[in-house]
Amino acid sequence: MTTAQSFLFFLIVLGGAATMLRLVSRTTPTVPYPVLLAVGGILIGLIPGVRLPPVGPDIILLAFVPGLVFEASLALDLNELWRRVVPISLLATVGVFLTVVVIGALAHFGLGLDWPSAILLGAIVAATDPIAVVNLLRQVGAPPGLKAILEGESLFNDGTGVAVFAAVLGTIVSGHPSAFDATLRFFFVSAAGVAIGLGAGAASVLLLRLVQEAELEIMITLVAAYGSYLAADIVHASGVVSVVTAGIVVARYGSRTGRLKGTQLLGFWNLLAFILNAMLFLMVGIALPAQRLVAVAGLALGAYVIMFAARAVPVYTLLGLSDIRGSSIPWSWRHMTFWGGMRGALSVALALSVAAYPGVNPQVSVIAYGMVVLSLLVQGALLLPLADLLGLSHPAKSPAAQSKSRWRMHWPRRGQ
């Protein structure tokens, strides 16, 4: 087959597998759909004789991340987000730094990695990606405050996590790793990303005020999402920070005017996010470096245990400081926030991207990949039982139950 035919075949395989796994997920409600996708991707990648196009970090970062991050920004409940701004801000800033330092220190002393490699490993997996968690919490009707904390933390620590990663990688590649150089790089990539995002978001709002057609609204937001990422990437700023900023500016405009609610625009972004997520989790499984991972399986398992344990430091410390009396953030929320700190496609993209850099330990990329896969399989498989155990399942408040209730209100029973 030609290159174009191979690419088309790849998309057909992804689409067919995503559809079949969606049907399977209906019979296994205890396992989230993204986890099934990752398992399906791993099985596809292990089929002998199947040759699919390689999945590189550029594809994930440029094609998938801007769309997913922008959609998440549009879908935020800004009022609930503002009510939880203190814990979210602490988790997405101080929490990221604590995660990097704790994982780096434990990986250095426990796994024997050198300091630059250990800190880089921590930076790769610093950002959480609780897509499976948030989807499950929506299904079971969990409290909106808990969903806001998980979504807000994930969205904002994507930005800070990538900024920290870029700073750490930059100082390692320079040949003279130092905390001071990494700090300067972090502030540059973050500030430049925010500035570009503000500009892209403001320009989008100005254009949205001038148009009424849904097609133009969709086109404007698409350009804002991918344009802000590309502009930041070109000047070596944080593309994720830029997209998050642009998305929140547009979401705030939509929240204040009410124009974007229930429109084709949100429907388009919901559909796009579903497609991107389905393909991305499959690609995460397909790109698994199985042979190389077997060689460092012990290190990967040890690193995952370290990452899992390190999650407890920022969660229980920072959420405890945010709510000393324990009245607004119950312990059940804290436990779910701890368990829900899964890693996903963004960490995979960062792990794949460091493999080609000189001066970087090649084992770091493979170990990080293994940590992400274990996170999805272990934590993801036990999400629903944990939600039931913590009393977070309220079926009557779930979207499906509310929809059924509305249907019953509109359609009287027989004999009435």
Brief sketch in words of this structure:
The chain has 416 residues and is mainly α. It is 78% helix and 0% strand. The radius of gyration is 21 Å and the shape is globular.
Which percent range fits the helix content?
over 70%
Number of helices: 21
Question: Structural class of the helices, strands and pairings?
Answer: mainly alpha
Task: Please write the string of helix (H) and strand (E) elements.
Answer: HHHHHHHHHHHHHHHHHHHHH
Shape: globular
Largest sheet: none
Beta strands, count: 0
Mean pLDDT metric: 83
Low-confidence region ranges: 399-416
Kindly provide the radius of gyration, computed on alpha-carbon positions and rounded to a whole number of angstroms. Answer: 21 Å
Terminal residue distance: 64 Å
Q: Beta fraction of the residues?
A: under 5%
SSE blueprint and pairings:
Layout: H1 3-27, H2 33-46, H3 57-74, H4 78-83, H5 85-92, H6 94-111, H7 115-124, H8 131-140, H9 144-173, H10 179-210, H11 214-234, H12 239-257, H13 264-286, H14 290-295, H15 297-310, H16 312-322, H17 331-339, H18 345-354, H19 362-381, H20 383-389, H21 399-410
Helix pairs in contact: 1-2, 1-13, 2-13, 2-19, 3-11, 3-12, 3-13, 3-18, 5-9, 5-16, 6-7, 6-15, 6-16, 7-9, 7-19, 9-10, 9-12, 10-11, 10-12, 11-12, 11-13, 15-19, 16-17, 18-19
